[in-house]
Amino acid sequence: MEEKEFFKKVDSFLQEKKDREIFKEIEHFHKKRIEKLKKNETPVSFISERGKIILHFIPFESYLFPKHYDLSVYKDQGLVLKPMFTTGHQQIYNFDGLLRCQIRSDRKSLSYVQLYTTGIIEAVEGYSLDPEVPLISIFRVEKEICDKTKEYLEIQKQLGVKPPIIFYLTLLGTKKHLIEYGTRDSYNRLFEGIRYIDREDLYLPKIIMKKFDIIPEKELKTTFDRIWNASGYPRSLHYDDKGEFKTK
Questions:
Q1: Are residues 139 and 205 in contact, defined by beta-carbon separation less than 8 angstroms?
Q2: Going by DSSP bridges, is the β-strand pair 109-116/165-172 parallel, antiparallel, or unpaired?
Q3: Phi, psi angle pair for 69, to nearest 5°
Q4: Residue 143 belongs to what H/E stretch?
Q5: Distance in angstroms (rounded) separating the CA atoms of residues 225 and 223
Q6: DSSP sequence for 25-46
Q7: pLDDT tens digits for range 58-100
Q8: What is the DSSP string of 52-115?
Q9: What is the pTM of this model?
Q10: DSSP state of 239
């Protein structure tokens, strides 16, 4: 082996090792955040009697080349950074960066999105997974996650963040919930295996988004399939045979 080729392989090996270490750091960050959210340790007082839908968009470069962005530029500007499933929201600067949240009359929050100075985005919604009404309005959930994925990636792009972006979707408090699709009678007619979710939480596999210009519905299909799988379905029924998302 020539010396040049040898050092090229060494550099490649070292880069792969460094990448693996960075992925470990990202996994650690995500794990710690989920642990805190399970304890209801949130940046704004949050309702606690329901489950949570959690999105994380973690730039690989935030661990490769740590950088802190100046978020004060958004003080007097309209920023398309909205919490999930909300229309109105408040803007708050905090130690981690910029927080947008919806707050009820009792001063409890239903949903928030945190933009970290490092470019990380964390969005949490705590209303949809209701143990008193254990039905997951799955089309609404899938559609909102796709819409917010597009919006949040655009925010990171405008901020100057470089891909890839490591995406996580986590559902807390899903045990004994059922996918809401069609009528109750149609469950047994369609699939005999339909069942209540037996997992307390659903930790969906991470997705490495290598560019900002993606089609969220296609990128997230296998993730949505896994949620449906947890309730006994073979796949998300909101996709046709060609893998295209069906809008209502």
A1: no
A2: unpaired
A3: -95, 145
A4: helix 138-159
A5: 5
A6: HHHHHHHHHHHHHHTT--SS-B
A7: 999 888 888 899 888 776 665 678 899 987 678 889 999 999 9
A8: EEEEEEEETHHHHS-----GGGGTTS------TT-S--EEEEETTEEEEEEE-TTS-EEEEEEE
A9: 0.88
A10: B
